[in-house]
From TrEMBL, chain A:
It holds the Pfam family BPD_transp_1. This is Amino acid ABC transporter permease. The chain crosses the membrane at residues 25-49, 69-86, 201-224. The lineage of its organism: Bacteria, Pseudomonadati, Pseudomonadota, Alphaproteobacteria, Hyphomicrobiales. One of its GO terms (biological process) is amino acid transport. It is found in: Cell inner membrane; Cell membrane. It is a multi-pass membrane protein. Keywords: Cell membrane, Membrane, Transmembrane, Transmembrane helix, Transport. Residues 23-220 form the ABC transmembrane type-1 domain. GO terms for cellular component: ATP-binding cassette (ABC) transporter complex. InterPro entries: AA_ABC_transptr_permease_3TM, ArtM/GltK/GlnP/TcyL/YhdX-like, MetI-like, MetI-like_sf. One of its GO terms (molecular function) is transmembrane transporter activity. It comes from the Bacteria.
Automatic annotation (TrEMBL), chain B:
GO terms for biological process: amino acid transport. The chain crosses the membrane at residues 33-55, 67-88, 100-122, 143-165, 198-220. It holds the Pfam family BPD_transp_1. Coiled coil: none annotated. PROSITE patterns: ABC_TM1 (PS50928). The lineage of its organism: Bacteria, Pseudomonadati, Pseudomonadota, Alphaproteobacteria, Hyphomicrobiales. This is Amino acid ABC transporter permease. Residues 29-219 form the ABC transmembrane type-1 domain.
Amino acid sequence: MSGFDLSAILSNPEYMSMLMHGMQMTFVIFFGSWLLAMTLAILLLALRVSPLRIGEPIVAAYVSYHRNVPTLVQLMLWYFGIFTLMPQGFSDWLATHNAEAIFAVIGLGLCQAAYFSEDLRSGLRSVSSGQMEAAQALGHGYTSAMRFVIMPQGVRNALPPLINHSVSLFKNSSIAIVIGAPELTHAVKEVENLSFRTFEIYTIGTVTYLFFSLIIMGIGAYLSMRADPARRARA
Amino acid sequence: MIQDFINIINDYWLLLLIGQYPNGPLGGLANTLILSALAIALAFPVSILMALARLSKWRLLRWPVTGLVYVTRGVPLLMLILWCYFVIPLWTGADVPSFLIMLVTLVIYQGAFLSEVVRAGIVSLGQGQMDAAKALGHGHMSAMRFVILPQALYNMIPSMISTFVSTIKDTTLGYVINVPDLTFAASQVNNQLLTQPFQVFLILAVVYYILCWSLTYVANSIERRITRRRAGPRNARLPAEAAPLKTITEQL
């Protein structure tokens, strides 16, 4: 084998289109599961703070399960286990509609929802109860106090862990390779099998992941700067 | 349905526990535990060295380690496993067992994450401790060894346990390079049965759940005790005053 030569891969249209498809799928999985996770996390949080007695233990059990079972095992349970228990017609329909990607989104999204809801909750809890009392003393109702006083501070506190967990979610999308979703790591493995240029293709894959992780971290830093009134005033 | 679970556990509990041990390599739950314990035991000294390097005043030491930490944080563990799986046999020229490859990967990965925890622990102690130690005649190294690290590491114990939990969860990814761990054993059982994947993988999930949940429980109770101790006897009623150490661990 000749020396390290990135252009052998970068100038090959076939390899590049495989990588592009992989990247596309990685992003579909990432954005799909992120949206699912955030929606669920807000619902879980609402259920937790609601006066319903049953809400608290249900959410606690949900969070506990998803944080203590490895993501890989959760995906396997979804794809190899629950998939086979579904009604025949439905699973046939799924099988023709990229079931791997759908289950990757479901599995990763449900798992991530547990982390997101905990982040949001600890963010809200760190806003002292005096804030709510002060807002109400100034004439805000519950909803309006939540909207204008509590939420802005809570979300600001929750931002750093939310960003960290979004990066983790992006990285964890690579686990979908185990259930056969054709995402970036899968594409990297395929190109490796075709080209035998392992060093080059792994470097490309690593740099791609690193690049987008750093972008997410950068967006996070920008958002926390924007959300911080003290720093915004200075800027 | 319940009968299925009992039957699977009855027939395969030994395989899930130790793999094909007497007739083959050790595997199953035992191997998962050994792998994660070894990984954390080796990652611990590595992480202290990396944290000291990141806090060092020499750029030559600080920059490469900082770079390594950022790369490890930005790249999926799976990619790192693939790298090690390819590079280690190439460099050593030997047929390295997948267990060792997974161990090296985990030491690098968790070492980088733990080093952030150690660094946070050292930084959170404040400059005063170092100044006081130097005033008493300690050099930098001796102050680190006898004053800073003992305190920082004691405060880190809960983070260490939660890193152990995430290491256990990380070992599942060894599945892609066929490390004979618990996940591998379960998929073997699944391949033999073929008809009951849901039952097999639910058992797998439950085993991991019990393992990780109980370790997290231990970590939490130790954390409460440490927070109380850091608050001191006079402030024992106000444990919230002592800033809780930020637990930086990777989820998986």
